[in-house]
Here is the input.
Amino acid sequence: MAVIDANNRGLRLATRYVVLTLIAVIFIFPLLFMVMSSFKPDLQLLRDTSSLRAFLPVGDISLDNYYDAFRRAPIGLFVFNSVLVTGVTVLLSLFFCSLAAFSFVYLNWKGRDLALTIIIATLIIPFETIAIPLLLFVSKLPWIGLEGVEIGWLDSYHVQIIPWIADGLTVFLFVQYFKDLPSELIEASRVEGASWWQIYRKVVMPLAGPVIATAAILKFLVMYNQYLWPLIVVQQEAYRPVLVGLQYFFQLSITWGEIMAYLTIITVPVLAFYLVLQRAFIASIASTGVKG
Amino acid sequence: MASKLTTSNRAGWGFAIPGFGLIMLFIVIPFFFAFYLSLTNQRLISPNPTEFVGLSNYDRLLSISVLTLEPERDDAGAVIREDDGAIAYPRVRTLTRNNPDYPQYQGMREWFRWHWGENAKVVVAKDVVFWKSLRNTLMFVIVVAPVQAGIALGLALLVNQKLRGINVYRAIYFMPVVVSIVVVSLLFRFIYDGNDGLLNNVLSFLTFGLFEGRDWLGDPNTALGSIKAMSIWQGVGFHMVIWLSGLQTISPTLYEASSIEGASKWQTFRYVTWPGLRNTAVLILIVITMQAFALFAQVDIMTRGGPLDSTTTVVFQAIERGYGKQDISGASTISVILFLLVLTISLTQRYLTREK
Here is the structure.
């Protein structure tokens, strides 16, 4: 009896792992296929799709596709643009949104509740529904540049950055987090004569590590994966981010090997970043679910 | 809170204004701007001044009607049939083009028809492509929202087990979420390819050669379905994680109690797990619905709305008109309609899932 029981349990455990692994295959193999294909010449690449070789680094393996991809498009520039826009937006977003949330939670001022209600209400506006009016709006905004005042923000870094700095979700995440901090800390600092700015900088923000990580990761994912907005506001190559740069590879004949190389270049850094900070990534998505 | 007793208007406004101002400027104003623009004939660049045109943009997009066509009859009154035996009907064009008897159908085109006895009912619309985009978007939402939420819950229950190495599986299921949908779309264009696509080869291998390949994205019958499947593949990990955080808020003592009572697995799920997931379920449904309504990048990269408009979506139409054709007012009208749709459906979901 005992032997059968143990066998049964072993079998059930094995079944569980088999199910889990089969599902994992569905999620991993397309990405594996992308990376492996990027090392193969086009002819072999197409032939390999008919066997398991599609997922293995076999045959004529080289970095040729990468050389060709770099020769075809200014990938370095596109990556630089994306990293610059993403980095600056994430930093400014953390600062502006946490500052606003601090004010909503700790300070008492006229219009506060109304302002917070408006911010929360923006959560139900999908960006796609304001993209076109926003396009017209930014095309008329003035900008003070090196050559004086210009009209229109199109074709620039700031048009990709400024509209994305503040958003309802980031403010909301900080508000939720600040609400749970012990208020005695703030009261004590007030009694000691600290200014609000000092309390923000020296007391509250040093305690906000987890929410900063969450907000930064969410913003990073949104910004690095921008497609629709730069597609419509950036025409010049000089300001184009990586995903819009993909258009280079649709001209004339499609060479899948080069495309897979480019996709790999775009994706691997993010995946590596994710695998290192896996727990923080998952925790940040989970914390968006706490509302409701 | 410390500030309950003291008012600090200056510091309060000072701290809030940068963030609040940006949200007003780049989210709230464009949002209301869309309503205003939808009542004008604004173009992105135009030498003519903008004019107020009332609701004519809405009329042009939404006008739809049903025509009844009676069969053509010969002099004896018998129904005329085509060579293949089908009943012959007058052309829709005769009614919708400069026909003084039917001014209300002027400029409309046929969307689809069905038969009603001897007669044919024809749905005609001023903007057939927009109606198709509306139908495609709704079909996408109706399929993707429940299926993706369901699969995500299944995955969450799977990775919520106490097993060695379960974190590795959780991390793998979540992986596609961090990959851009643009990258995924391009990758799947290759996977779905009709000639050398991976999917055809895998299916043919699994069925021992029985499956004959098809051009997944080139066939109007499978194109939207292929995009749905891919979107679920990419996004399901996101909602798995939200379900998971909901699962972890359910107190373990409830599970202990149900196991002492001798509840089956299904009963435990039905009476302990599911009630504990109420709020999570509402949130997930609303989030997926909003994301599904915004369908754009997949279509833009994989099919550009084709074949035969079978994958065009509301957002794709808005961008194609507003940016591609510089028709800002038409695109704003589409945006307003889309927002009202999202709002209605979210409110309905909230109402249907409210605490009774």
Notes: Chain A touches chain B through 102 residues (CB under 8 Å).
